[in-house]
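Final report, results section. Input specification for complex C-07:
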Amino acid sequence: MYALSKRLTDAFSRRFARAVRETYREDEAYASTPLGRLALYAFLLLLLLLPLLLGPYPMYVATLVAIGALSALGLHLLVGGAGQISLGHAAFMGVGAYTASHLTGPLAPLGVLLGGGIAASLGLLLGLPSLRIKGVYLAIATLAFQFLADYAFKTWEAVTGGIRGRTLPPPEVLGLVLDTPERLWYLVLLFALPLFFYGKRLLMTRAGRAFRAVRDNDLSARVAGVDLTRAKLLAFALSAFYAGVAGGLLAQLYKAVTPEYFPLSVSIQYLAMVIVGGAGTVLGAVLGAFFVLLIPEVLNGFVGALGPEYAAQLAAWRNVAFGLLILAFLVLEPLGLVGLWGRVRDYFRTWPLPY
Amino acid sequence: MADLLPYLIGGLANGALYGLLALGFVLVFRATSVVNFAIGEFLLVGAYLTYTFALLLPLPLAILAALPLAFLFGVLVERGFVRPLLGRNVVAVIMATVGLAAALDGGVQLLWGPDLKYLPGSLPDLGFEAGGVYVSSRAVWNLLLALPLGLGLLWLLRKSRYGILVRAISEREVAALALGIPTARILAGVWGLSALLATLAGALLAVASGVGYNLVFFGLKVFPVAILGGLDAVGGALVAGFLLGVLEALSQRYLEAYLPGFTEALPFVVVLLVLLVRPYGLFGERQIERV
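Structure output:
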């Protein structure tokens, strides 16, 4: 009986969910089982064909989620990867968005890329002093950066257009005007897919392993030869780069940039995505962004049903929801949705005969 | 110079509250190495508690009634969200305070509504004029309450049994536990004390300018103050509070004409400058380990 159970579960896990990776080749693979690979290809195909399947508004939301997931992945690399906290993620997105608002039309892809670059350099400038000491200083420095950026967005009229912000013409690629979410989707994919695969691979490289060593125990990481400041700085600059690119894409979607898009509460929203998604994985970033960005949509319906006097306080409801989500996941399911999924998978891995 | 004095008095009045708030914040950081990002919301909750009591009681009594409740609130926060995360990475606890901050932000608005509220009563007017300069009642009350309380707490932390236990725990928690110090109870007390101080600051603010959501932004200035004084320097928090108050007054007087709104951003410029030049703050312990 036992032997049978073992053979069944072995066969199952080889095919559907590999528990242990035995070779470097397996570790480096994007999907560890044939079925997983198939799912990956199917998912990529789905992404490419999505504009054919969805209407304009769902497509708008899908683009929003994709951009959110990209930005959340950046924060994942920092929080889940290197164990540092940033409360200024929205500000870096803002930097990217305002940069992109100056390079538009045919230059839009360049503007988005440059937005990431400028955000990353600002991240380096900010991280250099605060990462010399301890992680908590970075958290406070990013909070300060969030407020200073907010101030700059509102008052540096020459660059940001002040409170009224700036508007953008739709981007153009190879003479094609990307003026609808369906068309913009492909520009988003153009940036998001490489960055996603890069993020996935990064965690397997020397630098990515250094991040995780710093997260788990900085002292032993140092003893093992990891340059702590360098690793933390790299993680921070990378997360700023992802945020900048995402911000630039967001500006293309909204066709405008104003200071209201990037307040502290948005930074906290991204932190919620990371915690809800869980555990510094690419899958976590996607799940977290999906979950958190859909909450306002659900809340809209829920609060709207309660009555109009409640609907006026939607922002407050949203804050409560994000706050409680962060707390609940931290206390009850620290590994986030990825952890939940992992437990469901482990249950089925040995399913008919768990012992 | 003479026209600067009113600004300075206002700055010191704010500084006293910054100091009080930062004192509790730094105490929590020293004892538990948690950066409490919900400190601004502690102040907010405290101010609204005072407002609620002030609807029923005379104002001085209302403040006195809010303080024990605030202490209890701090203890509950420690029990509910800090203690369950014991043994986890300190990053997790800090993020829990961020989540708590967001939840309280929204919760307070849902409970008390979004509009600014004024307290029904007021404290006795202690304002006076000296040498042609008017010292507002607000400044007198703030200094009168904050200074003795702050200095008294510092003295207690240094000399009293409770204070020594707190310092023992912040030095090495596991060793303190092994010596039979009731660590859990004392840490809960530290959180309670922090909430109590924030509530006192919130109450004084509420008396002066009403209760509204924007009090959170006052609370956020605790970070510049704590960084300036040194994140682990309890006494430094008090001094840095006054220092920031004065800096803001100077900016209000001299810079506002050229850079409108800059005073709002100034505290965060201070954060970045201090981190660049002297990251352990004016009075913080210089850390030798680089991990």
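The longest helix of chain B spans residues 4-32. Chain B has one domain: 4-220. This concludes the modelling results for the funded period.
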